[in-house]
Amino acid sequence: MTRATTIDAPPASRRASSPVARGIGRTFASREFSVFAALAILLVVTTVANPRFLTPQGTKDLLLNAAIFVVMAVGEALVIITRNVDLSVGSILGLTAFSTGAVYSAVPSMPLIGIFLVGIVLGAILGAVNGLIVTTAKVPALVITLGTLYIFRGINNAWAGSTQYFVGNDPPEFGNLSVQVVAGVPLLALIALVVTVVFALYMFGARSGRDLYAIGSDPVAAELFGIRVRTRVITAFVASGALSGLAGVLYASRFNSVGADTGTGYELQIVAAVVVGGVAIFGGSGTVAGAAIGAVLLTTMTGALAALNVSKFWQQAIVGVLIIAAILITKIISVRNARRLRVSEAKNV
Amino acid sequence: MSDTKTRAEAAAAPATTPTPRRTGRRLLRSRDATIVYALVLIVILAAIFVPYFASVTTVSFLLIDAIPILLMAMPMALIIITGEIDLSVASTAGLSAALLGVLWHQSGSHGNIAVMFVICLIVGAACGAFNGFLIAVVGLPSLAVTIGTLALFRGLALVVIGDNAVADFPVSLTTFATSSIPGIGVPTVMVFVLVVVAVFAVILHFTPFGRALFALGYSTEAASFVGIRVNRSKFWLYVASGVISSAAGLFWVLRYSSAQSDSVQGLELSVVAAVLLGGVSIFGGSGSIVGVVAGVLIIRTVNYSLQLGGLPDTALTIVTGGLLVLSVVAPSVSARFVAARDRRARARLADAPAT
């Protein structure tokens, strides 16, 4: 997991000779571990202060709230690793969540697998639109996806108007998705876990997954090396769209009511989660697992503040501080690595 | 005004022999001119096809909603020209609005509001300085930093005012904020805004500092080699952005005579859209104030005429987004077209000696 980036994984200390010791050392020094540690500390402190925080029901709520954000953060991480950004994820979630309601109102007998397919395919199409424009126009993805954020949201508004669909109990098995528990874990959380693991393995081991890191590190070099940059970037956007589509279906199941402004403002939360999870905003480093942990950390923060009786008004300010702290840490690590590289190069002369 | 364009053009285009006629032709074919033509065309079309568009009330309603965007677009244009971005403008405005509400409320609604304005502007400057410090001094990427401060400043606005809304501002001030100059319908506040626009235009196009910003956008390293103080310039741009955004927030409060935590929410996207539509390159290094002003007015005119034409507000977001995408895709597509034409021309030249 932590080997996914050579830049961020500092070499273990020189005394650690065995590969196992090296592996352990690297794990503790990795960004993912520090985000995970922050999450653990948050959970422990909150539970000590308020024992009712981690009751079975409380834990279930935490996992359910995190699941939707985790799925989206995984997709966003792929895009950010390629040195792009997808700001339209909130609007894609809104469109797919609403289309879930629309499909059920038109075809009440739609099987579950069908509704998931509709959401994922619709999301993938919207993602492909992003990817095609970004790679064709050769302008920063920030601007294009800012535009498609508006366009997709506008389509959602025009289509929904003031209509609200309530898809929770109609059909009942769809609403049950978000209350079902498998071996004590909510089904939604399991879906998020599977998504994270699948994409983590893909980014870690698959050739095309590694290509995304190469593109993010140096797009020109990647092109010269023979990597099909355009195809890979479009793929990343399609994946981000498809996962936002999946998140839209999960949202409809969990929150029941979907309308014109569903998912508004999610994009910044998702980018925040990915950055907090140790994915560098300029691409080329970070992991999907880190992004997923970042998403869990941010959603847990919301619950923890409520449990600690901190005014809910502080929550957003704290999220902002977290983002800035994460960027600072990334900067410090890269400066230290650069210095270490210079020293080792000087020794090898 | 036209002089501004010449200077911008002279900066952007390689120096050929500047005969007056060539300068004039270049001016008429420049990017800025294209945007101004588009604006004029849109206004004419709206006046013809949209009922009630050609009236004095149109001028006041259209322009009063352009004021906050126009204000924030000025420092944003300079920042994007240097190759950075500031996504925290609307949150800074929101924090300033919330602060004004709380100060006013705590003074029992009869304090010295001028002093409160000054306090809010200072807080805005502090917000900008915080961005500037992290970006220019620490050297963090501006996109990520300002996404962080977008959340942070909006969060502080929530902390300051919570769920409350303060609405009992002095009637004389709120009437002034929504008043317009009789006869031509231009909002009174627009006079002050135009002063701000003029100041930014002069700074960008007629001072060494402004010329240096273009150089910064092309290449930070080259700029520092020729003696431009890169970090200092960027720092002060962010401070300016904080102050102007804060002023936009104060205007927002008086315009709607209400201060709450979600004042000016989401407007940063409209500001960026307007600046890019106005021909400022997202890669930095080119753009002009004339273009940006036209860009802001295009977005407002299109939105306003569609509203008048009975289009639901919902469709407007599609238009804003479409304009934004078009404005960045068009130059790159036309550049490709020009490159292909040049290649063909070169190929013809290469064939010519052979015949």
Description:
The complex is a heterodimer of chains A (349) and B (355). With 349 residues, chain A is mainly alpha-helical. Chain A is built from 14 helices and 4 strands. In chain A, the strands form 2 sheets. Chain A has a two-stranded antiparallel ribbon. Chain A has a two-stranded antiparallel ribbon with strand order 2-3. In chain A, helix 9 packs across helix 10. The N terminus of chain A is likely disordered. By secondary structure, chain B is mainly α. Chains A and B meet through helix 5, helix 6, helix 12 and helix 14 of A and helix 8, helix 14 and helix 16 of B. Chain A: It comes from Frondihabitans peucedani. Chain A: This is Autoinducer 2 import system permease protein LsrC. Chain A: Part of the ABC transporter complex LsrABCD involved in autoinducer 2 (AI-2) import. Probably responsible for the translocation of the substrate across the membrane.
Tally of DSSP helical segments of chain A: 14
If strands are numbered along the chain, what order do they take across the biggest sheet of chain A? 1-4
Shape annotation of chain B:
globular
Give the SSE string of chain A: HHHHHHEHEEHHHHEHHH
Percentage of helical residues of chain A? over 70%
Pfam family, one (chain B): BPD_transp_2
Protein name (chain B): Autoinducer 2 import system permease protein LsrD
Transmembrane segments (chain B): 35-54, 60-80, 87-107, 113-136, 143-161, 181-204, 211-229, 235-254, 266-299, 319-339
Biased composition (Low complexity) (chain B): 9-21
